[in-house]
TrEMBL record:
DEAD-box RNA helicase Q domain residues: 1-29
Protein name: DEAD/DEAH box helicase
Domain Helicase ATP-binding: 32-202
Listed SUPFAM superfamilies: P-loop containing nucleoside triphosphate hydrolases
Superkingdom assignment: Bacteria
Source species: Romboutsia maritimum
All copies of domain Helicase C-terminal, residue ranges: 226-369
Amino acid sequence: MNFKNLGISDNIVNILNRNSITNPTPIQQESIQIIKAGNDVIAEAQTGTGKTLAFLLPIFENISPDVNFVQALILSPTRELAIQITEEANKLKEGKNINILAAYGGKDISSQMNKLKGNIHLIIATPGRLLDHIDRKTVNLSKLKTFVLDEADQMLFMGFKNEIEAIMKELPKKRQTLCFSATMDSQVKKLAYRYMNDPSIISIKKEEITLDTIKQEVVETTDRKKLDALCAVLNEDNPFMSIIFCRTKRRVDALEQSLGERGYNCQKIHSDIQQSKRERIMKSFRNADIQYLIATDVASRGIDVSGITHVYNYDIPESTEDYIHRIGRTGRAGDEGYTCLFIDPKNENALSEIEEKIKFKIPRREINI
């Protein structure tokens, strides 16, 4: 199965090939033709499975550049994810006169409003900023053909239910609705079915990300010696691209300063950092100009960067789910990944709980400091 078999045009197949994307992932194989045919879809697929292209490719096949109205809207829970989707979309529009507007907080609204006066075909937005445009009457969605609700479970978890419903009221009744979610719980299903017309259900089974392709280790240390232990591990591993997770923004700040002083190529990312700077940092990280990205769990949501070889848990995560989410940033698409968790004596119980839930005793790593 290739993209041409799925009905993707030569121009777009060539763009994909230039970006080293040659074979469709399972979610793309299952959904592209159904979406291209105009059907509603509820799709369950993890981040990192290629779901963004699963909806972008058929949208680009169906958009008419010569028609002057908003034809597709993609709603994303976070600015980071909206930025990533926009980057993918901008690659695909090469050679086509398709205008894309990214509308999210942290960007100057007046420049967005000026752009909206032009001919916009596709909007990629976060809920708050889109409602802002709707209230100002700077956006007209009355002729919309396709609406995508991306990371639906995350939307509901972040409390956007009312905003989603307010946006839905502005959309034409006759439209295509696509709902993508990592988990398909009753809340997501309820929301989806309320606004959909006989949707096709697509479920891509979760890969066992904790064990299959990721080597896990634990370093036992003390809070006082943790920084030295981390540096010893980083010096031994010298990873190509790595995320280091901390529990709080304050811990992220302190670790970035300490590692920077010791000469490590690192940058921090959390919600207190200005949006434009976060965008620059993420772009540098994707380009592998930054070796170590130091992040909180919240800031990392929606970050899907290929090529991350190592994940370091400087602070133990609050739950097993968070641990799985963190380490799932490496070992993608069948590549080998590595993760190391640093614990001090007071973390022993939390570690035992993680090991119990993942049914795996994580090997201890010995280091010399």
